[in-house]
C-alpha cells in the first residue's frame, strides 16, 4: 500500500487501504479491508468500483455494480474463492494531509487506557477518526500504545481522542503528515522474514459498560496466559507480543451498507470490537510452542466472552490464523450465497482444490 499512497500524494488524493505500508493490496481488499477511513467509507472493499477477474475457465470478466453483480458482492470479503483478480478500480479521496501517529502510556495507566478504548467504541461521534489501541509487553512491564488517525490537514488533538491524550505519554509521534508518511511510520513495526502469527476474535455489545467488560476480560485472559509462553521461549527470541483492538460501529457499518454492502455479514445496529493476538518470534524451534499457546489462549478467550454473552463468531480474515473458521462467522445466509457464487463461476471447484492456502468457502 505504501507504493499506492506515495503515487497519489502529488495528486492530493488517497484511498482506503492498508494502515501499514508493507501490507499487500489484493489480500487486504479481498478480506474486506480495515483502513484509516473506515468510519467514513466502511471496509476498503466497499470502495472498490470494479474488479477485473480471470475465472477458472480462462474467461476475463469485470464485476461491478451493473455487471456480474453477485460476483462483485462475493469478492467483497470472499477472498480467493472465485477467480484471479488482476485489477482493482478504487474510489479515491481528496487528501491534503492527515494528523496521526502513535501515543503511548506506561503500565500505571493501562486501566484508563482500556476505558478510553471502550469510551471511543461506545460513541464514535466523529467519522474522521480511527484508532488502534494495543497493550504491548515491554520487559517486565507493559505499555498501552494507540494509533490515532484524524482526517484533517489543519486540526489536531480532536476532542474525541482526549480520553487517550489526557493521559501522560511516554512516547508521542502525533503530527501532521501525509497518509503515505503515516503508513511508512506504521510499517516500521514490520520485521521482514520473521516468524509470526495473528489470531482474530470479536466481541459484540451496545453499551460502554459491556464493551469495557469485554475488553478487560480479553486483556486479563491474554496476559494471564502469557507466562506460559515466555517460560518456553527465551526473551531474545521474542520480537513482538501484543493484543490490539479495532472498534467497528454504526458509522462504519452504515457506510458499508450505503455502498451496496459486502459479504461480511455485520449488523449496523451492533458495536463490534475485533481484536488480534499477535506473536512474532525468531527460530523455527519455537513454532509448535507458539501454535499451541495461541490456540489454547484463543479457546480460553472465546469461552470467557461466551460466558458473559459478548462473544461473536466473526473473525476478521485479515488478522486470522489458519486454524480459525472464517466464513461461518459471516452468517448462514451469507455463507450459502458465497457458495452459490463460487459454484456458478467455478463449477469444477478449481479454486477450492488446486489453489494452495487461503480460507475456502467449501
Automatic annotation (TrEMBL):
<dbReference type="InterPro" id="IPR006094">
    <property type="entry name" value="Oxid_FAD_bind_N"/>
</dbReference>
<protein>
    <recommendedName>
        <fullName>FAD linked oxidase N-terminal domain-containing protein</fullName>
    </recommendedName>
</protein>
<feature type="domain" description="FAD linked oxidase N-terminal">
    <location>
        <begin position="1"/>
        <end position="63"/>
    </location>
</feature>
<dbReference type="GO" id="GO:0050660">
    <property type="term" value="F:flavin adenine dinucleotide binding"/>
</dbReference>
<dbReference type="Pfam" id="PF01565">
    <property type="entry name" value="FAD_binding_4"/>
</dbReference>
<keyword id="KW-0285">Flavoprotein</keyword>
<keyword id="KW-0274">FAD</keyword>
<dbReference type="InterPro" id="IPR050416">
    <property type="entry name" value="FAD-linked_Oxidoreductase"/>
</dbReference>
<dbReference type="InterPro" id="IPR016169">
    <property type="entry name" value="FAD-bd_PCMH_sub2"/>
</dbReference>
<dbReference type="InterPro" id="IPR036318">
    <property type="entry name" value="FAD-bd_PCMH-like_sf"/>
</dbReference>
<comment type="similarity">
    <text>Belongs to the oxygen-dependent FAD-linked oxidoreductase family.</text>
</comment>
<dbReference type="GO" id="GO:0016491">
    <property type="term" value="F:oxidoreductase activity"/>
</dbReference>
<keyword id="KW-0560">Oxidoreductase</keyword>
Amino acid at each position: 500500500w505504501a507504493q499506492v499512497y506515495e503515487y497519489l500524494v502529488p495528486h492530493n488524493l488517497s484511498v482506503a487501504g492498508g494502515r501499514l505500508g508493507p501490507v499487500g493490496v489484493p489480500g487486504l481488499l479481498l478480506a474486506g479491508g480495515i483502513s484509516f477511513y473506515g468510519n467514513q467509507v466502511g471496509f476498503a472493499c466497499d470502495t472498490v468500483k470494479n474488479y477485473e477477474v480471470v475465472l477458472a475457465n480462462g474467461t476475463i470478466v469485470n464485476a461491478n455494480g451493473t455487471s456480474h453483480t453477485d460476483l462483485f458482492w462475493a469478492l467483497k470479503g470472499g477472498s480467493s474463492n472465485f477467480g484471479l483478480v488482476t485489477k482493482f478500480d478504487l474510489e479515491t479521496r481528496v487528501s491534503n494531509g492527515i494528523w496521526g501517529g502513535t501515543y503511548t502510556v506506561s503500565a500505571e495507566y493501562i486501566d484508563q487506557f482500556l476505558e478510553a478504548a471502550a469510551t471511543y467504541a461506545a460513541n464514535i461521534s466523529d467519522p474522521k477518526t480511527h484508532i488502534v489501541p494495543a497493550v504491548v509487553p515491554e520487559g517486565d512491564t507493559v505499555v498501552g500504545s494507540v494509533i490515532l488517525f484524524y482526517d484533517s490537514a489543519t486540526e489536531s488533538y480532536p476532542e474525541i481522542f482526549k480520553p487517550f491524550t489526557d493521559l501522560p505519554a511516554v512516547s508521542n509521534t502525533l503530527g501532521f503528515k501525509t497518509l503515505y508518511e503515516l503508513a511508512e511510520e506504521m510499517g516500521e513495526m514490520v520485521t521482514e522474514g520473521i516468524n509470526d502469527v495473528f489470531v482474530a476474535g470479536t466481541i459484540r455489545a451496545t453499551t460502554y459498560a459491556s464493551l469495557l467488560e469485554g475488553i478487560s476480560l480479553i486483556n486479563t485472559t491474554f496476559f494471564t496466559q502469557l507466562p506460559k509462553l515466555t517460560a518456553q521461549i527465551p526473551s531474545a527470541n521474542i520480537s513482538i507480543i501484543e493484543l490490539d483492538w479495532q472498534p467497528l460501529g454504526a458509522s462504519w457499518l452504515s457506510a458499508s451498507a450505503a455502498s451496496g454492502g459486502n459479504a461480511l455479514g455485520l449488523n449496523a445496529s451492533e458495536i463490534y470490537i475485533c481484536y488480534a493476538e499477535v506473536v512474532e518470534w525468531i527460530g523455527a524451534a519455537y513454532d509448535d510452542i507458539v501454535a499451541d499457546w495461541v490456540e489454547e489462549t484463543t479457546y480460553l478467550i472465546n469461552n470467557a466472552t461466551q460466558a458473559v454473552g459478548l462473544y461473536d463468531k466473526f473473525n476478521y480474515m485479515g488478522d486470522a490464523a489458519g486454524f480459525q473458521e472464517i466464513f461461518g462467522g459471516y452468517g448462514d445466509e451469507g455463507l450459502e450465497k458465497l457458495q452459490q457464487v463460487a459454484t456458478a463461476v467455478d463449477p469444477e471447484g478449481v479454486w477450492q482444490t488446486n489453489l494452495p492456502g487461503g480460507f475456502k468457502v467449501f
